[in-house]
Amino acid sequence: MSIDNLKSGLPEYAKDLKLNLSSLARSTELSEQQLWGTFLACAAATRNDTVFSEISEEASSHLSDEAVEAALGAASIMAMNNVAYRAKDFLGDDYTQVKMGLRMNIIGKPGVDKVDFELWSLAVSTINGCPDCTMAHDKTVRGEGLTKEQVFEAVKIAATISGVAQAVQIEAAR
To answer: Which residue numbers are catalytic?
Structure first.
């Protein structure tokens, strides 16, 4: 199970995704934990079993057990938060002051460096299409010292993993 397996299973029309997977997996823009945690959180966020299983085994060989749990926690909590925050936005100004009222303890104690968890949350929020969460996590990670280039590296991983999941789904349905 690996990114190489994913690449070999992609059709010719997804050649750019193969190339992006290769280059992003070798990226030096992020720390190893940031890189592989982003891959894992994004794979979980795609809700694609094949993508998740192929990436999770490889990512787990680069991450501590705590980082694996935190990356999966980022994917899970953002699945909830992204829906709730988008709904508040859809519902309009009348809902801006309504208390969220959902438990989000993992955000305060993720088990890894806060900046890493926030970066993973940002990447997942981009997949889930939540601009408010994406911007909030960007503000946090930039405040913690990450550069625009590092943030966008995580966005590129999210975009590529999302595209790979789409291609895998297309091929499964053909």
So the answer is: 130, 133
